[in-house]
Design a protein that fits this description.
This protein is 84% helix and 0% strand. The two termini are 24 Å apart. By secondary structure, the chain is mostly helical. It has one domain: Four Helix Bundle (Hemerythrin (Met), subunit A), CATH 1.20.120.550.
Length: 129
């Protein structure tokens, strides 16, 4: 397995697991019945859980772009130090983004997002160059 595909699997797994903490908070706050139902006036989740949910949505949105670029690079045989490093950095940027978003660290959150975007653009450049 290439480094790029390995990190695509890691990013996808991270994204797939992000919902667990905020759903557990929802269950603790609302109870199981309201957490799985559609209450008219649901109790609000903890602020950190609301932010984590937003970080999860952001991760899903960006996974589409990252995954497509990694798969295209793999299919056309584009790989090397730049693509491998972009994928490694992207993974860690998403970890930092999740934590910074959850714990309200605004400049770090934004920087992590920009670094991740830069990694996506590095992959795009390597494919299109």
């Amino acid at each position: 397995m290439t480094v790029e595909l390995k990190y695509l699997a890691l990013v996808t797994t991270l994204t797939a697991l992000m919902w667990i903490p905020y759903i557990l908070n929802m269950i603790m706050v609302r109870g199981v019945a309201d957490a799985v139902g559609y209450p008219e006036n649901p109790k609000p989740m903890a602020p950190w859980a609301t932010r984590m949910k937003a970080a999860h949505y952001n991760a899903v949105e960006n996974l589409v772009v990252f995954a497509a670029l990694v798969v295209v690079a793999h299919v056309v045989g584009v790989k090397g130090e730049a693509t491998a490093l972009a994928c490694v950095i992207y993974f860690w940027a998403r970890v930092v983004h999740l934590l910074a978003y959850t714990f309200r660290i605004p400049w770090v959150r934004t920087l992590a997002f920009v670094v991740g975007f830069g990694c996506q653009m590095t992959l795009a450049y390597e494919i299109l160059a």
